[in-house]
Amino acid sequence: MLLKCKKIKVSQLIIWGLLAALCLFVTAKIMLIGFSADEEYQMILTYRLARGDMLFREVWDTLQTSAFYGQFFMWIYLKVMHTTTGCLLFLRLCGVITQGCVSLFLFFTLKRHLKFNSALFLSAAFFCTYTKLVAMPEFSNMQTWSLVVMLCAIWRAKDAFDSGKKKKGYLYLSVAALFFCVAVLSAACVILIPAIFVLLFRLQEKGGMKRNLLFWGICLFCGVAYVLTLLAINGWDTMLFGINGVLTGDDTHLGGVLLNGNQKWVDYLQGTGIILAYVAVTLLIAIFVSCVIFQITQKRNDVWMLVWIVEAYVITLYNWFVKKIGYEGLKLYIPVLSFVGIYVFFKHFHSEKDSQAQRSSMLPAFYGIIIGIGVFVNVLLISNVGIMLNITFLNTSALWGMVILVSYLEKMDIPVKYCLVSGLFCLMIIVGTGFTLNSGPNGNTIFDVKRGGRMQEGPTKGTVVSIPVAHAYDFNYRMFRDLVKENSNVLIVTNFFHNQSLTPIYMLNDVNISHYTVNSTPTYSDKLYEYWEKYPERMPDCIIINVDSCTGEDYMWAMDLISKYDEMVEVSLYTARCFVRPECVKEGYFNQ
Q1: How far is Cα of residue 186 from the mean position of the Cα atoms in its chain?
Q2: Contact status, residue 65 vs residue 107, Cβ threshold 8 Å
Q3: pLDDT, tens digit (0-9, with 9 covering 90-100), for 530-583
Q4: DSSP 8-state symbol, 55
Q5: Residues 6 or more apart from 569 whose CB is under 8 A from it?
Q6: In the beta sheet, which residues pair with residue 570?
Q7: Which residues, 6+ apart, have CB-to-CB distance to 213 below 8 Å?
Q8: Going by C-beta distance under 8 Å and a sequence separation of 6 or more, which residues neighbour residue 184?
């Protein structure tokens, strides 16, 4: 028996060691490879806020309230390092550490309701899950972290109420409310409020109204305090002007290859039809296989669910590595696991024959699925890209669906099934995050980066991208650093085509940003003239037109703006035309 115990412990250590190694591999990949538009946007947004640009004053970005966490780390980096060089890797590291802390909180919460290995696998899967394959603190990660912590805190509050520890329960509810406030700052989450309201009512037979009053009272207090703080800093007139600038149309999401208007809803309908077709066909195949097994064994079981999940895994892997779609393709396992979680909850945790304790044991996980769906719908309403790219916002729904499924398999006491299911789910997430890439010139998997180049200059130093992109960035950084004087006002006319938006140039030479947004897909219109009329000190001294990555309409707008200046010197960067007021050119530049 002693030898057997030692053998089990050794095998456990091997499994844990492999899991840790895989998580480290995913971490290394997510930190070093690739550079996406959303990551670029958030990095520059946190930079301009850390330098003193104020929310709803100089900044009119729709996602500006999500930047406070990254802004804090950027401020530390600037104070300690006195440079922006390499700050992207630092922000990514901060994001990975935060992801690890949330994963630990999730693990210790799940461990109360699942077996150790199941909780470990599912928490490791969450640790390796990044909605946009971006590690830094940007809005999708902030939203995910805050909502997962909120649900874990509510689950712990439920456990405390069930065991008669009301003070502890109210403490966890207070923590949940604070993290919901973070979720609201990260993105517009009002669509989630009804689900949370009902969940708080159902934590216990009585006291639902009191719990809701505490939760929403804290949210209201934090919201009022936040608004009053902004008003105290900006003043009423400036605040209203900035809010109007944000609400009068987010023209940064209307140009180029992005979706808008009827085109957006047509894409959503087509994408939904494709997803539902895959879900329906694979479900029918899984039911057929289950019927065949029943005819052979004469035992009724839920094997169709496991077959359905395996089908979803296989199709997703086929899309990733055979069709070369990459991370942004159809990840069929996400909607399948969400459906499975809902089915298992109502079939095995919410039936009339179950006890009250059993019926409510997975209640927070069920609402985790519902809230994840709410996040997905919320994102679709404000998004400008297709539904296939947005399906990753259902990641947490798939996670909570897996929690419910594994809990059911553990209740049935079939160790091979629940260990295999949770382990395969974790492995699937690791493969997806560790081996696939976002769309771009790097390709679709890390095998396509074998000829990649490492950026040597600027805030993105150390990041691996394609050789042409790395060369363009490095050359432009060196040119710009030698060209424009410190504290000049700079406007970059660009669009994020082919990963060459050039907006990180804003982070060099301590220049001031002349645009109300640093979104990497901006458009240029008379709204900018309104901005400069309010803040004339932000009129550009240097205008960079990224010829290879800007629309013809934006190019003509920029040339018209340049014609309004009395005199500007033109110099050429690697992929851009650069116009600078003579007094803003560094001394000796033309002698180089």
Answers
A1: 10
A2: no
A3: 899 999 999 999 998 888 777 788 888 889 899 888 788 888 777 788 889 888
A4: B
A5: 579, 580, 581, 582, 585
A6: 579
A7: none
A8: 190, 219, 223
